[in-house]
Amino acid sequence: MSFYRNAVWFMKGMQEYTKSGYEAAAKHFAPADLDVNLSGRSFMVTGANSGIGKATAQEIAKRGGTVHMICRNKGRAETAKDEIVAQSKNENVHVHIVDMSSARQVWEFAQNFSQNNKLHVLINNAGCMVNQRELTEEGLEKNFATNTLGTYILTTALIPAMKKVEDPRVITVSSGGMLTQKLNVDDLQSEKGTFDGTMTYAQNKRQQVILTERWASQHKEIHFSSMHPGWADTPAVQSSMPSFHAKMQSKLRTEAMGADTVVWLAVSAAAIKQPSGLFFQGEKPLNSANQWWLLHEC
């Protein structure tokens, strides 16, 4: 990543990704877009026990949707479920224990789920930023296994079932950090050079955006989108980027602010009026002439 690109991204972040950026963008939101009854619709949220995933699950449950929480830790998942049910008064919240870094677990879960459940909306939110190179039991670099491969396997396995329902959608929570990365398919396992967890994470998020574009072109029956939640104050940011969190804490968005665009893409009629496959920041796709170069140039 060049110094110039990094500087441009950080300045953009300070202006648009912080709490003040959210408040400025929120003036143009249409609250009526989220005034929906989701009874009868089924939503799957990965990484739903905390942070943006939990806030998203909460908003869906409040509107009557059936929520399937995909989590790795059973204790934290059950606690989060109880809180969501208590606040939403919606009992249709279900926990599934799946390690998204395990290709085998993800595939087997998706196959079993498809046989027994309907799914209208998949929200790929789970992610990790491991700052030291670490391999899973399957021999895969952990960031790639969780962020890219887990997302790919889960989505691919659920697509056939989603084509059988009305208005199916897939939303993938990416990151503005991917704007600093040119897609690199020659080092998916981060084996070359010095390992940098932040750059590996950003590369994974770039991969998610490209996957979203490819899925959209291949599966016209489903509406795909990826998005950037802004810089939000979540447990993941606190643990993975402690220095950034300490410096930026007062400027970071709340978890609910970070989930706002996810919920809009998942539930509103306005969202599917946009073309499938786009990357969103707020309710607008990031494709203006002065920004698109970040996505597609070196």
TrEMBL record:
It comes from the Eukaryota. Gene3D superfamilies: NAD(P)-binding Rossmann-like Domain. SUPFAM superfamilies: NAD(P)-binding Rossmann-fold domains. Signal peptide: none annotated. Pfam families: adh_short. This is Dehydrogenase/reductase SDR member 12.
